[in-house]
Structures are given as structure tokens and as C-alpha cells.
Amino acid sequence: MRQNPFNFPLFIILLGVILGIIFQDSFFVISYLYSIIFSLVGIVFLFACFYIIKKFQKESIFLLSFIMGVLLYNAHYEPNNKNHYLQKLSPNTEYILSGTIQEIKGKRIIVSLQKEDQFRVKGKVSLQLKDTLSQNIVGKYILCFTSLAPISQAKNPSQFNYKKYMCRQYIYWQGTPLCYQLEENHSHSIVLLTKKTQIQLASSLDKYPFSDSSKAIIKALVLGIRSDIDTDTYQHYIDAGAVHILAISGLHIGLITFILTQIINFIFPFRQKKLKIAIIFTILLGYSFITGLSASVLRSVLMFGGYSMAFYIGNGKARFDSLMFSAFILLLCKPMFLFEVGFQLSYMAVLSIELFLPFFNKYWFYENKLLNLFPSIIKVSIAAQIGIIPLSLYYFHQFAGLFLITNMIILPFLGIILGLGIIVVFLSSIHSLPYWLVVSYDFIIILMNKSIEKIASYRDLIITGVYFNEIMLIVSYIVMLWGVLYLYFRKIRFLYLLLISILLFQGYLFYQKYERRKIDQLIVYQQYKKTMISHQQGGEAIFYLSDTISLPRTYIKNFCTQRNIKHFQYKSITNIISFKGKHFVIVDEKFYLDKTDSIDYLLLRNNPKIHLEKFLEKGSVPKIIIADGSNYPYMMEKWEKTCRKYHIPFYNTYKEGYFLLE
């Protein structure tokens, strides 16, 4: 029997903490006070299990870790603070507020409110300014007169849950200031200092004649600023399976660590491992400083820094332990890291490499380093992909079959490209970047972009629109777990469990197919100044649209993927849709409604000239009246009053979101 590749008690603790955080985030049933009480009870129970009963030790450790996860979630939950704006302010009420601009997200700024303002409140809010946003405003002090409102729920099915995403960053309200004033912030906060340093380094590149696309890639590659990359270039990197190059991750930190190791070994040939490790880690922390101390960079430095040090020491078990320990420390600092896609992908990729690479090396390895270069890239790429495929399918619903080609072309040179990029940024910051280096590095980046674009052009090797839900994600990792356990311990029971898990996965696919056949539903979507209706039957759907020119193609594609719809078509809106033998009547500004028409469901769109009260008195009374986002708000309010008078249900998609009929 093989020895455990990792510290089992540490694994139990980490698993318990993770499940505790997920449980509290999903249900939020345990208050802060009760989680503290349960923690104290758990400590007593753990002590009893270890020293008195001397049984259930693993179970008690897991239970206490689970409670610790709940406690961590509650301890970091900002609205628990009595000075948080959720505790003190009322929504849709105007206030004078002040705070520091922390970051820019698209057309919005994230502001950390100051406790020193008029209402002595804390917390982060999202504000939309009417002026053009510049990166130079990050770190500035803002004084504004605004009303705040809770971030609204998603108005359409299978739509990105923006509210949940923002809540996990402790941002709950948003607003548009009526007026505001920006001032220099004289705070000596380390975070603000690093943000300003990052912006200054990025601005220094603007003084040199780089092409716009190259400049955007340099900022992303070296400084972690991706906002300047155009949509097409970013999509090419996604399709080619190379998007990880554009985000400072474990790959970048690993390459920097490798470069530093070679340089330090050359400068200090003596065997002082502790000193070398200290130098490397200090430089990595310095690098995280110039990239704005972003969460993703700090995570990568801690995760890969610890992992690299364990690798440097040469202890295989220590690499697993350092990986788990770094995850534990990060979750202690910020439990919401757990829900970040980058956190999940980074740890699964490194864990998968560590688990599967030894088995690949066993059957395919060359002693000659030159001969082993490309096989090593292939093995590492496949090992990483095994671990992240389920997550990639779940979050992105696509698989880039080109990742091997991309990695074989780009990865051998990425260390050189990254190293040169750091030199270029450093020289530009001190105004000493020579013209020949600008031209040369610009050519290298353009060549890399062209290579990525060419690889991404082979669309047949990109699998898109893959249906993959949460249950499939969980079962996939259960299959992987039993597979890894069988590879390591070669016990027949793990093989049985592996086969059973595969059968469960297949069984669930058949169940999904059976359930999909029974679906027959009609949806009226919330669209601003437009109307969109869909009728889904099984794996097919028809989308009725008021505007067939400016289609919401991205949303429709995502909707069909998440609903496992294989075939769909577009049609112009008709005035009557038959649904399960019922009449779904659509009235617009052109359609004349006959009072004798049989109406089961009535949709009012595009501000129809209808006297609703007279119609309800003399015509067919529908079961429900729906008004979508193509109508003026004042007209919908008028119709709602009429429906209330005649005791007819009224549904306003602008307020309540999409309307579902099954």
C-alpha cells in the first residue's frame, strides 16, 4: 500500500472549512453568535473525543472545521458590523456620502465609504459616474450626493447573477450620484499606494510607440490590467485555450520563480536554501506590490510561492501540504475567495498536475532535457486539463481542443516573453527604454497575437455550447476522486466506486434527457424597449422577437446552452400564439383587439392604444395581463390600477422580471 501523498488531518480540516463556507453562503441559517457558541461546544467535544472517549477523532475534527468555516463566513460578513450602511441607511433615500475609489469596473466605480462622513457608515458601494472614467481616479477621495438602492436580481432566466457576484465582494447597493467632487486622497494606505504604482507603471508605457494591441497585452501580462484588451483579441485567447496567459496566475509566478532560481543559483552557487527561498519570496511579494496587490496576484504568490519552495526542497508530500495550507490561509483571510473562478481553476490545475504528472512521467520520460522539453509541456498541459475540464465546462460551457498546440507553441517562449516584459516595464518607468527594444518587443507580442488568432481560427476543434450543470460538476469530481485513489492505492473497492460513479453520471444524463422531453413552457422576457418571447418544447425553442436586427445573440446562446436546447429559430412576433390549446394574445400599437376574441393570456407591448377598462367591461376577461419592458412606466402603472380594480392579476416584467407559463 502506498503512503498517503498528503497530510490527511490537514485535508480533513480544509474540507470541513470549505463545506462550512459553502453551507453558510447557500442557506445563511447560523447567526454570528450561534456560530461562536457552536465553535466553543465543538472545541469541548473535540477535547472529549481525543482525551476522554478516544473515539470519533477524525469526525470531531471535521465537525469543528465545518463550524469554523461557518464562523469564518460570519466573521467576514460586513453587514454584521453595526456601522455598515445596510444597518444605518434606507434605500432610495438621498444622502451625502464620502469614500475612497478602490477600483473601476466597466462604467462603474467601487467606493469604500468612510466612517468619518455625516452618517458614519462603512461598506463598499457601486456608483455610476456620468463622466468618462480614467484609471487615474483610483485612490482618489469622492464626496457625492446620491441615493442608493439594492442591486437588482437577474430579470431573465439563465442570466448572469450580477447581484450574487457583487454580494460575494460585499457590495450590496448601487447608485448614480446627482453631483460629486473628487479630491486627492492623502491617506498612506498600502493598497492605495500599490494601486497608484500600478497605474503609473501602466501609464509609462503610453509614452512609447507600442501598437495598441501590444500595449494592452503587456499591461495584462506584466501588470495584471486586462481592461485595455479588445473583445476580439480576448476571445481569440479563450478559443485557443490560452486565456490563462492574460491573467497573472500560478503560471506567471511559477515562471518568475524559475527565472529567479536560475539567476540566484548563478549568483550564489553555495547551498543556502533558506536564504535563496527568502530572496525569491521577497521578490515575489515585491512583484505583487507593483501589480496593485490584487487578490488574484496575492493568491498566486502565496499558492505558487509555497508550492515552489516545497518543490525546491524536493519533498513531494510537502508540495501537497503547502498547497492545502496556502488555500487554508487564504480562506482564513477571505472566505469569499472560494467562489472566485480564478481561485478554483488555479488550485485544481496545480493539484491535478501534482496528482497525475508522476504517472505520465512513469511511462514517458527522457533523461535528455532537450528531448524532454516538448513531452514535458504536453504532459503538464494534459495533467492540468484533467483537473480543470469540469470547471471549464461548468463556467464557460466550452472546451478548447487546441490547448496542446497553443501550449507547445507559446509556453517554451513565455518565460522569455514575460522576463522581457518585466524589463520593458521597468525601463519605461525610469524613462530609459531604448527604441530598438520597443520595436523588437512590439514585434514579439504582435507575433504571439497573430499565432493565437491563427490557432483560434480552427473552429472545428473548439467545442462550444456544452450543457454542464452543478450536479454534473460534482459527480465529475467524484469520478476523478475514485480514479485518483485507485491509481495511488490500487484497491479493488476504489475501482468499484469509480465504475459506480461513472454509471451514476451516465444515469443522470439519461434522466436529464427524459426530463427535457417533458418541458413545454412559454417565457416573456424583460427587455428594455423591446419584446422577446420564447416557446420551448423539449430540446427545441422558437424565439419571437420585435427586432430581428439587433438580436441579443449572446444571451440567447447562453440561455440555450444552460437549458440544453439543441435547436432554435427566430421569428417575428405574431399577435396570437397558441400554447397548450390556450390563446396567448399580444396587443401592440397596430393590432386591433376584437372584444369577441377568446383570450386566455394578454400581453401588452409597445404602448398600445387600448382603453383597458372598457375592454374588460365588454370583452373576454383574460386570466392574467402582462406588460413588458417595451411600454412606458406610467402606462404600466395605469394598467395595474385598472387590473386591481377588476381583480385581475397584473404582471409587470420591469418590476418582477420574466413571466413564465408552464
List the helices and strands and how they pair.
Blueprint: H1 8-27, H2 32-53, H3 57-76, H4 85-88, E1 94-105, E2 108-113, E3 123-128, E4 141-147, E5 149-150, H5 162-167, E6 171-175, E7 179-183, H6 190-205, H7 212-223, H8 231-239, H9 250-267, H10 273-290, H11 295-313, H12 316-333, H13 341-363, H14 373-396, E8 398-400, H15 403-429, H16 435-456, E9 462-464, H17 470-489, H18 492-517, E10 520-524, E11 532-537, E12 540-545, H19 553-562, E13 567-572, E14 576-579, E15 582-587, E16 601-604, H20 612-618, E17 624-627, H21 633-645, E18 650-652, H22 653-656, E19 659-661
Parallel strand pairs: 3-6, 12-13, 15-16, 16-17, 17-18
Antiparallel strand pairs: 1-2, 1-4, 2-3, 4-7, 5-6, 8-9, 10-11, 10-19, 11-12, 14-15
Helix pairs in contact: 1-3, 1-12, 2-3, 6-15, 7-16, 8-16, 9-11, 9-15, 10-11, 11-12, 11-13, 12-13, 13-14, 14-15, 14-17, 15-16, 17-18
Please provide a brief summary of the model.
The protein has 662 residues and is α/β, with parallel strands linked by helices. It is 54% helix and 15% strand. It has a seven-stranded mixed β-sheet. Strands 13-12-11-10-19 form a five-stranded mixed β-sheet, with no helix packed on it.
Give a written overview of the molecule.
With 662 residues, this protein is of the alpha/beta class. It has five domains: 8-76; 85-187, OB fold (Dihydrolipoamide Acetyltransferase, E2P) (Beta Barrel); 195-464, no CATH class; 470-517; 520-661, no CATH class. It contains 22 helices and 19 strands. The protein has a seven-stranded mixed beta sheet with strand order 5-6-3-2-1-4-7. A hairpin with a 2-residue loop joins β11 and β12 (540-545). α6 packs across α15 (403-429) and α8 (231-239) packs across α16. It is globular, with a radius of gyration of 29 Å. The two termini are 56 Å apart. The model has no long low-confidence stretch (mean pLDDT 84).
